[in-house]
Design goal:
By secondary structure, this protein is mainly α. Helix content is about 60%, strand content about 0%. The chain starts with a helix and ends in a 25-residue tail after the last helix. It contains twelve helices and no strands. It has two domains: about 5-20 and about 145-220, Helix-hairpin-Helix base-excision DNA repair enzymes (C-terminal) (Endonuclease Iii, domain 2, Orthogonal Bundle), CATH 1.10.1670.10; about 30-135, Endonuclease III, domain 1 (Orthogonal Bundle), CATH 1.10.340. The structure holds a DNA duplex.
Length: about 220
DNA sequence: TGCCAGGCCGGGT
DNA sequence: ACCCGGCATGGC
């Protein structure tokens, strides 16, 4: 891939869609909770769960930390997998409390690579969730790869079907300036494109902003 | 009405 | 190192 390929795609998406204003949340803590709740789940359902917690004033580090898992599960029910996710949130909240006393600023002081490996040790936090937390809650310069990212890149022949998370992440990290605002906006734009034009069952390739037959020539294939 | 949504884990090969 | 089943609600 040429250096400019991703930059061109970014410019094209930004010109077309404009700024996406991610992550939709009132606080970094809400981003972290949302990142776990949205695992393999429609964002609309996550919003319901978030709202349920907000209504009870529970969407704060200490409050949620003290909430029994059983009750937590009841509030986040609309987000699906609620028992699994209650357990995962519990794991994360323990980590957040024990390592940083529930303090975002304290957490932000840890260097990116070390914080990432610590997050990945938390049961229930995988690469995408960790990177979402790092980028969108803590302003760290890391790129988030998700199902939309893969689908869009695959459709435009910029990756092979068996490309791994790390393969795809490397593309962005190695071909773009290390700029957290760029990473933030770019990923949000890819999701937007994925939602509006690159759906699994209803693709609208004929009117895709990046072009119908793949964005660039075949020589740019990875 | 079935299919899908901003994954991850644990056990098996 | 992969592959698969399980986890669950709500919208279209």
């Amino acid at each position: 891939m040429r250096q400019t390929t991703l930059s061109k795609i970014y410019r094209k998406l930004f010109d077309y869609f404009g700024a996406q204003g991610w992550w939709p949340a009132d606080s970094p803590f809400e981003v972290m909770v949302g990142a776990i709740l949205t695992q393999n789940t429609n964002w609309q359902n996550v919003e319901k769960a978030i709202l349920a917690l907000k209504k009870k004033g529970l969407l704060e580090p200490e409050k949620l930390y003290k909430l029994p898992q059983k009750k937590l599960a009841r509030f986040i029910r609309p987000a699906g997998y609620f028992n699994i996710k209650a357990g995962r949130l519990r794991e994360f909240l323990n980590f957040f409390h024990q390592s940083f006393k529930g303090d975002i600023a304290r957490m932000k002081k840890v260097p990116l690579s070390r914080l990432r490996s610590e997050l990945l040790k938390v049961k229930g936090i995988g690469k995408e969730t960790a990177d979402s937390i790092l980028l969108y809650a803590l302003d760290k310069p890391i790129f988030v790869v998700d199902a939309y990212t893969k689908r869009v890149l695959l459709r435009h022949r910029l990756i092979s079907p068996d490309a791994s998370y790390d393969d795809i992440q490397k593309l962005f990290l190695e071909h773009l300036p290390r700029d957290r605002k760029l990473f933030n906006e770019f990923h949000a734009l890819l999701v937007r494109l994925g939602k509006d034009y690159c759906l699994k069952n209803n693709p609208r390739c004929d009117v895709c902003p990046l072009g119908q037959d793949g964005f660039l020539s075949k020589t740019t294939r990875v």
